[in-house]
Amino acid sequence: MAGLIPRQFIDDLLARADIVELIDGRVPLKKAGRNYQACCPFHTEKSPSFSVSQDKQFYHCFGCGEHGNAISFLMEFDRLDFPDAVDELASHYGMEVPKEENNLSPGEQLKQQKAYRQKQDDYELMGKISSFYQQQLKTADDKDTAVNYLKGRGLTGEVVKRFGIGYISDNWDGMMNQFAHVNTTQQLIDLGMAIPGDKSRPYDRFRGRIMFPIHDKRGRVLGFGGRVLSDGTPKYLNSPETRIYHKGHELYGLYEAKQANKQLDRLVVVEGYMDVVALAQHGVNYAVASLGTATTSEQLQTLFRTVKEVICCYDGDRAGRDAAWRAMDNALPLIQDGYSLRFIFLPDGEDPDSLIRKQGQAAFEKIINQSKPLSEFLIEHLSAQVDLNSLEGKSKLVDLFQPYLNKLPDSLIKDGIITSLANRFVGGVEKQLIELTKRSNQVTQKKSVKVNNKATPVRFAIALLLEHPHIVKALPDITILQQLHMPGIELLNQLLTLCHNKPDINSAQLIEYFRETPQGNHLSKLMFWQHGITNEAAEEVFLDSIEKLLNTFVEQRTEELLQKGRSGQISPSEKQELQALLNA
């Protein structure tokens, strides 16, 4: 039974991690003085404001304010929860994550432990069900029906195995008979694998279907898509939303595409499971599907974090073009220079599966290479809604473009769209176009993150201690500030104690102790405070800040004792203390 991850293991993991190497594998970094920089992966920008410090093992974006250590980066970039991010980082360095069972505090820690344990149980059960479906494709009494269907779609055993495709017979309880027990029946319902029935007898959600497992980026089974073999409806049945499966965040086939390609250069987004598998069967092993939804912002972020070129391949009918438009609209805030979103619409009556089976890989990839760039798709779609032969129509087109240009960050792509528009205008519309550009630029101006840079002694002491935890050794007594009452002192005392008790702690480890606390957010901002103190002067300024705080303590204590003296409530020992303070 899994428990909490020991704090010492997290410290050891962060000590081994190299945040520059980790981030550079996902976002190419360039050396910039002592640090490294790149355009931020968490928001769109033209100039790099994302800074990574090897010394601090910390990253910070001066544009959007995102910040953190190696664990935080994996949580944000790969959208993992904390335990999964620790698992991922540990796996990268060949470390096994231990779990501790003792000394569990009540409340939130116990709740988090239970949730983590539940997720691991869910992943394990879904993996077993997937294996069961695959086995049924080989052993079920009516397996020949399923095998013949797959062969009829041109699929080989190799590609079926690669995608983990399986089968379930048309029985009400084929899966439930295998997995439903006292402790798992409700779990199967929660995971969308069973439906509550009359008299508390749940039954299989999927029956008489070819089963397509949906994997996350780590290869764990989250849900399923089932293709019916009879005349039943719906033709495709998908897992519902569950505690481990959120269809708007996942992409069918992405895990398999990464497994098949050491270096992915582009991804093709198609509409169905069978499209993905059929393309892979014919050599196009870089296709993904958006799981029955319009391609969401979260899915597009995942795509652009994986590759720089995304091609949306849809049917040429109204539904396909509407899906493409929704994908384009969701993608606009994410588009930046160096990234490409393109669109292809297949002939009537064709889908990627049928087309590649008829024409083969070379012909299909030729079609992909002729896909329309986003700018052309946007202009063509909006231009079709107006009369370009009239001044009024051209003026209306400018207004139609306004909300879409507002969503685009400043980039060469945006400039190109505006130039293309300008080439279509004559007469008095130029002024309106100039105003359009002006308004659009105002909308996309960066909003700088405001940081309180008030240089108080407490702020200096905390900031320098974060950067150089070892300077705590210069203090003869770390308890000297514990009686001082002023903003930030309690946090400073916590840091002093941590640094004293763990002499080898680094900045990333120090911040980790304050994860998900109000103090943690404050400390993260201070990590990249431009205070102008050199490394050589850090210890001197730190001690000077502590001295100023001690002077403040003396003033506070003296005033406190003087007040007691005036009211006649001062004790003999306090009189001696006051005399010493006044003579100091």
Can you walk through the features of this model?
With 584 residues, the chain is an alpha+beta fold. The chain is built from 24 helices and 16 strands. The strands form 4 sheets. It has a 5-stranded antiparallel beta sheet. Strand 3 and strand 4 form a beta hairpin. The relative contact order is 0.07.
How is the topology of this model organized?
Blueprint: H1 7-16, H2 19-24, E1 30-32, E2 35-38, E3 50-53, E4 58-61, E5 67-68, H3 70-77, H4 82-92, H5 108-139, H6 143-152, H7 157-162, E6 166-168, H8 176-179, H9 185-190, E7 194-195, E8 203-204, E9 209-215, E10 221-228, E11 236-238, H10 254-260, E12 266-270, H11 273-281, E13 287-289, H12 297-306, E14 309-315, H13 318-331, E15 340-346, H14 352-369, E16 372-373, H15 374-383, H16 391-407, H17 412-422, H18 430-443, H19 457-467, H20 489-501, H21 507-512, H22 518-527, H23 538-566, H24 572-583
Parallel strand pairs: 12-13, 12-14, 14-15
Antiparallel strand pairs: 1-2, 2-3, 3-4, 4-5, 6-9, 7-8, 9-10, 10-11, 15-16
